[in-house]
Amino acid sequence: MKIIGVTGGIGSGKTTVAGILGGMGAAVIDADAIGHRVLSEDADVKDILAGHFGPSALLPDGNMDRHVLAERVFGNAGQLHFLNCVLHPVIRCRVESLIREYRLQGCELVIIDAPLLIEAGWVDMVDCVWVVTAPRNMIMKRLESKKMPRRQVLSRMKAQLTDRERCRLADEIIDNSSDLSGLKIQVSGILQNYMAKQC
Ligand code: ATP
C-alpha cells in the first residue's frame, strides 16, 4: 500500500485533488474533517480548550465554537501553537488508525488530505508529498464560494508555510491554475507515473 500526502495552502485545491484521486479508486483521509470531529467528539480535548480559551469558545450545546477558535488563533502565533499542540497528536492518532484499517482491507493507495502535513511533522506518515499550488488571486476568487471572509483567508495564509517552503519538500507539485478538466488530466498523469515507478 502506498500513502500520498496531499498538502498546500488554504484554498489551493487539496480537497479537489484528493477527490479526483478518490474517484480513481484511492481511499481518502481528510485530516480537516477529522479535526472537526475531534473538536465535537473528544471530551478531553474540549475540556482542555474550554479551560484555555474560556467558556465563550463553547457553543450552548457544549461543542467548541470553531469560528470563535479561529478568531482567537489566526493572527496570534502563541494561541495557534497551543491549539495545534492539543489537536495534532489526537488527529494523527485517528489518521494512523484509519491507515491501519485501510492496510487490513488491502487498499493499494491511500491519500491523506492535510493542509498542515508539513507544519505538523506528519511527512513520516506518507510515502510521498504532493503539493497543490495556485496563484493567490485565483485562490481568493475560488474561496469566495466558501464565504470565508477575506481577512480570515489572509490571516490563515500568514500562519501557514509559503508555497516556496512547501515545494522544497514536494515530490510532486500540482499546478492548479487551470480548470477542473485540466486539473484532472494533470493529476491522472502524475498518478500514472507514480504508480508505474512502484512496479
Ligand atoms: P481549504 O484550504 O479551504 O481546505 P482546499 O485547498 O482543500 O481548501 P478546495 O476546497 O479543493 O481547496 O478548493 C477551493 C475552492 O476552489 C473550491 O470551491 C473548489 O471547488 C474550487 N476549485 C479548486 N480547484 C479548482 C479548479 N481547478 N477550477 C475551478 N475551481 C476550483
Helices and strands in order, then pairings?
Layout: E1 2-8, H1 14-23, E2 27-30, H2 31-41, H3 43-53, H4 66-73, H5 77-104, E3 109-113, E4 128-133, H6 136-143, H7 150-159, H8 163-168, E5 172-175, H9 180-198
Parallel strand pairs: 1-3, 1-4, 2-3, 4-5
Helix pairs in contact: 2-5
This protein binds adenosine-5'-triphosphate.
Adenosine-5'-triphosphate (ATP) binds at residues 8, 10-16, 32, 115, 142, 145-146, 176, 179-180, 183.
Description:
The protein is α/β, with parallel strands linked by helices. It has nine helices and five strands, in the order E-H-E-H-H-H-H-E-E-H-H-H-E-H. The chain has a five-stranded parallel sheet with strand order 2-3-1-4-5, with helices on both faces. Helix 2 (31-41) crosses helix 5. The chain binds adenosine-5'-triphosphate.
> Structural class, from secondary structure content?
alpha/beta
Oligomer: single chain
Name the strands of the widest sheet in spatial order: 2-3-1-4-5
How would you sum up the global shape? globular
Q: How many domain modules?
A: 1
By CATH, the superfamily comes out as P-loop containing nucleotide triphosphate hydrolases
Query: Which hetero ligands occur in this complex?
Result: adenosine-5'-triphosphate
What is the averaged pLDDT score? 94
Query: Any idea what the radius of gyration is?
Result: 17 Å
- Which CATH architecture is right? 3-Layer(aba) Sandwich
